[in-house]
Predict the structure of Arginase.
Amino acid sequence: MQRPAVSLIGVPTDIGAGHRGASMGPEALRVAQIDQRLARMGLDVRDRGNLHGPFNPWQPPHAGYRHLPEVAEWNRAVHEAVHAELREGRLPVMLGGDHCLAIGSISAAARHCRERGKKLRVLWLDAHADSNTSTITPSGNIHGMPVACLCGNGPAELTGIGGRTPAVAPEVFRQIGIRSVDEGEKRLVREAGLVIYDMRHIDEVGMRRTMEEALDGVDADTHLHVSFDVDFLDPSIAPGVGTTVRGGPTYRESQLCMEMIADTGRLASLDIVELNPAFDKRNQTAKLAVDLVESLFGKSTLIR
């Protein structure tokens, strides 16, 4: 099987987050040598540098949203950059940045799928469901809203990115590792019919069965997008995030998750988001994230 050509796209902003610091995530991943590590695996890796957008004004919410104009501008830039790489036949890896940026990257993947007649499957690896709206959000932080916005439940500035509203249907998502859902959000995810494999599910059936279920139906016509929020990981191994939630996947569970995705051979686009070096210890979370991304691209102990 042909190895993918990979393009790294840095998006240095914490515009949608509740803590400063995710803007430093792209550089932390580069310090952890993400480009060299993937290149050593035989991949054609190009670092496209960083996108540019408005500074974080650090203002309170307005009509239920913090920094909506700035979030929209950053996501439009992400959308165009990711779509351009997909159009060239390359695999875009977005180095975030906070998770609001997935509105841009996933809407780009959805647009690409419409153009190529492919099915989209999104694996959302996260501690949070990220399905809040302006009326139920406790904070107004848009990094808690990207799934809702992608499914058409949000402001037009975000739901219309990519030229179609909604950008995707809820059934494209498989959310894995969820363990923190706000009270009002619980009703919304149920009404939307989102498929969620929370930590209780993983505890009961194990990561192998969970991933088999999440990947069921992925075939040669599927564009597989992985949106990897680093707070998916248990904070005992990944402290470098702004929104830690105890009880996440262990190192080995996380490795198995990535290895089983790699086994499909269908990975076509990737987000790495919410890495916050301000909370990290000697860049250990960035190094772990890169380690897991190597597994996602097929690194394994034995030839399989």
About this structure: The longest strand covers residues 222-229. Residues 147 and 211 are 20 Å apart (CA to CA).
